[in-house]
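During the no-cost extension, the postdoctoral fellow (Dr. R.K.) reprocessed legacy sequence entries with the updated structure-token encoder. One reprocessed record is reproduced below for audit purposes.
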Amino acid sequence: MTYCVGLLLKAGMVLLSDTRTNAGLDNISTYRKMFLFEEPGERVIAIMTAGSLSVTQTTMARLQEAVEDPDADEKSSIMRAHTMLQVADIVGRALLSVGAEVHEKMATMKQSASATMIVAGQRRGGAMRMFLIYPEGNFIEATEDTPYLQIGEHKYGKPILDRVVTPETGLNDAQKAVLLSMDSTLRSNLSVGMPLDLVVIERDACRVGLSRRIEAGDPRFAAMSEDWSATLREGFARVRI
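Re-encoded structure tokens follow.
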């Protein structure tokens, strides 16, 4: 399984994903789940994936192939689309098509496979937008009322986001929020695991401002995790019943 989270704020976007796709006593696999497409100053697009690896890898391969195709147009390439809404539509159609193909192949074995994606980005002159793409190809969009989207094992990391994240949250605090959201998930679900990929995109920059790979044992992440645990224990002790 996996956990990916994206925040859409007035100051920019913060995205975080884990890299674990399979967990068991002796079978743990690691694959990147965040993919970046960038023409600095013109457009930046981030895609995070969760679900069947066969579906997500094939979908991303086809999207990449379209980006590299000199004959591609705004209807087939996310790097030529005129708006982020068109980008979401291209990704949704690709995900639906691949999902249907994989499902047909697996139907004889009475198995199924599906995936979801978060698509976020901005093109020069357009607004920052973030979408959650469903297996059926349809999508929903992050709004000021709900300025974040999650895919995968999201339930453990949701409470802190509900309590602290608003559209006015700054990018530094937003990084803290998604990392603590991930820390809660890591502690509660073995199907989510490190390394982590963290990306920050400032509003109207149309480029990746920060890209950080957080490995297991990272001292900054470990210190933050311990500080958060200590703060929770102290807060719990102060609460009266």
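DSSP finds five helices and twelve strands in the chain. Residues 80 and 92 are 16 Å apart (CA to CA). The remaining legacy entries will be reprocessed before the final report is submitted.
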